[in-house]
């Protein structure tokens, strides 16, 4: 977690919340592993300096994935990814920017739209310029950013295990929502919309 964006700890999570986050973390980890593998295998004719920067950032992406600390969004009712999570943990792209000393770009994205996705930024956005200056394409940077199960998962390489993880995460999220709206003493009826 980057100290610049650290916030105070949230309330203690329920077991079901922790299960959902663990499943989501496993899904994100697998997504990042596949994205990194695809980016390492991509054939780009880059000048030596850009190739060096690209490899450095792919190594940083691998370290980020191996650390396994991903941003969470506990304030939105919907499952919306954040550039920097509620607890100050950056997403993969924000992590790469921070590791490169670009706190200014991360802060600018958060100020503009904390749910920003690389593919939605304008062509002249400073983050897009940074991506291209560091030997990545905009499409590759967008691929690094995972989506939630409602979106397209794992670009075009969705395998049975990650899809299963995505389904479990969605299922546990629905259970969490159900447990929040079910009121004991209501005759077993739920306030959760079916």
Structural class category:
mainly alpha
Low-confidence stretches: 1-10, 151-162, 180-194
Determine the fraction of residues in helical runs and give it as a percent range. Answer: 40-55%
Instruction: Calculate the mean pLDDT score and round it.
Output: 76
Shape: globular
N-to-C SSE string, H for helix and E for strand: HHHHHHH
Number of helical stretches of at least 4 residues: 7
Sheet of most strands:
none
The figure for the number of domains is 1
* Total beta strands: 0
Strand content: under 5%
The whole-angstrom Rg is 18 Å
Write a short abstract of this structure.
By secondary structure, this protein is mainly alpha-helical. The protein is 53% helix and 0% strand.
How would you explain this protein's 3D organization?
The chain has 194 residues and is an all-alpha fold. Helix content is 53%, strand content 0%. It contains 7 helices and no strands.
Topology:
Elements: H1 15-41, H2 48-67, H3 92-99, H4 103-112, H5 126-133, H6 138-144, H7 160-181
Helix pairs in contact: 1-2, 1-7, 2-3
Descriptive key words:
disordered N terminus; 53% helix; mainly alpha; 194 residues; 7 helices
């Amino acid at each position: 977690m980057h100290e610049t964006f650290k916030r105070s700890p949230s309330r203690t999570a329920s077991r079901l919340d922790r299960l959902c986050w663990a499943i989501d973390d496993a899904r994100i980890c697998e997504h990042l592993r596949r994205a990194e593998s695809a980016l390492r295998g991509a054939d780009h004719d880059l000048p030596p300096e850009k190739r060096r920067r690209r490899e450095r950032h792919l190594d940083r992406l691998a370290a980020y994935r191996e650390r396994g600390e991903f941003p969470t969004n506990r304030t939105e009712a919907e499952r919306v990814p954040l550039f920097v999570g509620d607890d100050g943990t950056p997403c993969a792209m924000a992590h790469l920017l921070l590791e490169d000393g670009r706190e200014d770009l991360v802060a600018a994205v958060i100020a503009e739209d904390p749910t920003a996705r690389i593919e939605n930024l304008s062509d002249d956005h400073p983050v897009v310029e940074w991506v291209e200056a560091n030997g990545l394409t905009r499409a590759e940077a967008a691929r690094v950013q995972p989506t939630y199960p409602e979106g397209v998962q794992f670009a075009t390489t969705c395998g049975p295990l990650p899809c299963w993880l995505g389904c479990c995460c969605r299922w546990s999220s629905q259970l969490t929502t159900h447990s929040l709206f079910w009121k004991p003493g209501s005759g077993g009826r739920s306030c959760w919309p079916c």
